[in-house]
Amino acid sequence: MTRHASFPKRMLPLTVMAVALLLAAVPALAAPPQYTNSLILQRADAHIYKHTDGYYYFTASVPEYDRIILRRATSIQGLASAQETVIWRKHASGEMGAHIWAPEIHFIGGKWYIYFAAGASNDIWRIRMYALESSSANPLTGSWTEKGRISTGLDSFSLDATTVEHNGQRYMLWAQSNPDSNVYIAKMSSPITLAGAAVLLTKPEYSWEIQGYRVNEGPAVIKKNGKIFVTYSASKTDDRYCLGLLTASASSDLLHPASWTKSTVPVLASNVNTSQYGPGHNSFTVSEDGQSDLLVYHARNYKTISGDPLYDPNRHTRVQKIYWNADGTPNFGIPLADGVTPFRFKSYNKPTYVIRHWEFRGKLEENVTNLADSQFRLVPGLAASGAVSLESANYPGYYLRHKNFEVWVEKSDGSTSFKNDASFYRRTGLADSGGLSFESYNYPGRYLRHSNFLLYVQAVSTATDSADATFITD
């Protein structure tokens, strides 16, 4: 078994470090986690597992489809520069000899398991699911044992195995051709053995699921708010690739098809404004403080592909925070632009309301389901490095700025006046040191605040004014 570290360490962009310094400038403020995308280049079908030993474990498909790799780090951002270890290579001949795809790492019953798909050396499209096992504490340095093929009862193209435990029962979910690529679920009697018949969860039926190919694949599971959510990927692996969503009650029979409802529209799709195309094959993890659920997925930062997209190497691993709608469902937003991930800013005195833009006017609103309208990146100030500017997540290059003291989201024209109007000094919250306030760069003493749910830059003189000008980073 050969191991090597192949990827060079990458340094965070200077803008990220600059923003980190700005965040640290207000010690009382505990900002939510922030990450830099793309997290890891040329790593598709990414899977991140947070273990009880304090490490995040990462695996993914490599462009050569010839090996299984692992990284680990104590932070998600640390995975970007972590050394990469090859823990297994494809066979020289026969089964598991080609197309090593979509590994996932799980810790079950005191042992590590990696599920993956592979073709045969003499039939590269004979894709089936397999498992590796390790009893070592550190799966990067321990030995791995091949546990053979995972039998589903149907001998056809199968891939993307994942597993979840629910109410004392372990389940496997995977994709298999019959004849379309469908997603199935079955009980497990061991980490590598299915018990009972496979149950169909979803098949490609909507127009967005049949672009290029008729595909549902790559299931991933997250449990929250008394519900079980299964994301899956649909269509060809070019810019039409996207995520769908299944939902079931946590108290329902997961093997009963009627327990599940299916979204009629994709929940994450390509975005021209952010230049992210074909987002898909995701996994879920949690932030370092355990407070935020995170979506891990891959995407390309260009649309046009020469040749078969399966062999285009530039599907990059990305990560972003999941927000939760008032009805308890996940809101994935849009695939965010390259660079630091954005925040939401909640009103201090109207805590269910957040800053958002509506027809480019800045305002407060609650239950914002068009998530990206309410997300802004804190970037170094356009007018001064000691200030900050708030860049729109869904309109990169557009910033919150004041105009006649009204706050709008507008595209930077590069002028000095725009830079000044779009720059703010970040201050400890005027009403609460656990929050933050934004003082105008070019009008000292005036702060970003809400009045009748619209945003203005105004002077602050009363306790109500201070509360209106205080926000909580989310």
UniProtKB/TrEMBL annotation:
UniProt keyword annotation of Aminoacyl-tRNA synthetase present: no
Organism superkingdom: Bacteria
Family: Belongs to the glycosyl hydrolase 43 family.
Statement: the UniProt record of this protein carries the keyword Signal: yes
Keywords from the UniProt entry: Glycosidase, Hydrolase, Signal
Annotated TM spans: none
Organism in which the protein naturally occurs: Stigmatella ashevillensis
Protein name: Family 43 glycosylhydrolase
PANTHER family in the cross-refs: GLYCOSYL HYDROLASE, HYDROLASE, FAMILY 43, PUTATIVE (AFU_ORTHOLOGUE AFUA_3G01660)-RELATED
Cleaved signal peptide residues: 1-30
Record domain Alpha-L-arabinofuranosidase B arabinose-binding: where: 344-472
